[in-house]
Amino acid sequence: MSQQQSQEETGMMPSQQQQPHVLLVSFPLQGHVNPLLRLGVRLAAEGLLVTFTTFRHAGLRALPDDDDDGAGPRIRFEYLRDVSPSYDDDARYYQDPSDMLRHVADVGPAALAGLIRRQAGAGRPVTCVVNNPFVPWALDVAAGTGVPCGAMLWIQSCAVLSLYHHFYTSPEAFPSDADPGAPVLDAPGLPTVAADELPLMVRPEYARNLWGDMLRAQLGAVGNKKKKTLSWVLVNTFYGLERSPIDALRTHTPVAPVGPLLQHDDLHDGDLAVADDDDDGCLAWLDAQPPRSVVYVAFGSLVSIGRREMVAVAEGLVATGRPFLWVVRDEVLPEGALAACGGGKGKGKVVAWCPQGRVLGHGAVGCFVTHCGWNSIAEALAAGVPMVGYPWWSDQFTNAKMLVEEYKVGLRLPAPATRDALRACVGEVMSGPRAAAFRMRATAWKEEAAASVADGGSSDRNLQAFVEDVRRCHEERGSEGGERRIDSSGGIAIST
């Protein structure tokens, strides 16, 4: 067979055929997709061949077509194919997150196995699968199809990972049906955590639901020496931010901070092929505002706070007297909220989407009112922006606690939100007696985050160690003609 014929059949250049191939497998929610894509950009920049996959649906913003080359460091895109007889269109499964979780767990393993086999048949066998939470089956499928290396990208904080680990090993230390208000006193590396500051999945009413069971399955492989499908736990954080929980976790878990995972020029806020002018005028509007004057408000892609609180938030933003930029995803502002905002003609701007990383990095933004999703917290810290936290779901309650008590960059807004409480919190963070301290601390986190991902920083060294491990795995597989399994109990050099 000629070299030209080989290239035509595989669709790969010779240099690509020799690259270690990393397959990123994501749960199909935007908050899961974004950090995994950002990790992929970094891995591709290190010379690895990277393919991203998930179940593609209308709720995921701006994902490209299969095998799209993209810009900058190349990431390939090949989506999981639902071949179940009952499948008709994605709307049936992807409107409700719980329905999504069930459907993905039902059809995902077979779809992923087929994808891995197609990669091998095309001359690019997968060296390493990296999954993220809620697709725990991905690593078992990878091992079963001969993929020699497995890793997880943990997309929440190490503080939350510590709580989950403690819950699954010592459930008696957590609130129960008999004592639902009990605090958690001794989670590794953490201060006392009140019952209402815990992630939902360790509270009695949620711990045994579908989401809790899926997390249990994912974390069961972490630190399990008998189950060698998982060699690395990459975390979207940085050592200086979470020193205590990271040090505590490392006694039994191969955690490697590689964050903060932020947007790059070719991946705008985790969304692909989004032009600079496709921001509904957000950046131009910010350009016209005074420095540190704008209140930026975004509650993520899942949180819906309801009509009454939408009105309260609108009234509170107007009452601050400050310009505000409010992202209202896939919703229509109720009339009361629109009226409170001056019918769209007041000092605020309401949009359906914005490039969050670039907005937070804009000099006009002085405060971020956030649902406390971990991606948002990490982006705000990396941008040096103080916050008002308004947690709603999952890990957000613990994140809110940490941003107030440990990171010391803002306040938590009591629920349910009221006009006066929001006005007071924003005022305190932006111009109150503690505003300078909040800003100073946020700036310090910004500098430490930048140092972590810079060449030679702690997160950069961990990423380099992971890349080298993938390369060794690739080389050993090629030289031995067989599989290689890395024991999670040793051989990993993790940086601080």
Automatic annotation (TrEMBL):
<protein>
    <recommendedName>
        <fullName>Glycosyltransferase</fullName>
        <ecNumber>2.4.1.-</ecNumber>
    </recommendedName>
</protein>
<dbReference type="GO" id="GO:0016757">
    <property type="term" value="F:glycosyltransferase activity"/>
</dbReference>
<keyword id="KW-0328">Glycosyltransferase</keyword>
<comment type="similarity">
    <text>Belongs to the UDP-glycosyltransferase family.</text>
</comment>
<keyword id="KW-0808">Transferase</keyword>
<dbReference type="InterPro" id="IPR002213">
    <property type="entry name" value="UDP_glucos_trans"/>
</dbReference>
<feature type="region of interest" description="Disordered">
    <location>
        <begin position="474"/>
        <end position="496"/>
    </location>
</feature>
<feature type="compositionally biased region" description="Basic and acidic residues">
    <location>
        <begin position="474"/>
        <end position="487"/>
    </location>
</feature>
<dbReference type="Pfam" id="PF00201">
    <property type="entry name" value="UDPGT"/>
</dbReference>
<dbReference type="InterPro" id="IPR035595">
    <property type="entry name" value="UDP_glycos_trans_CS"/>
</dbReference>
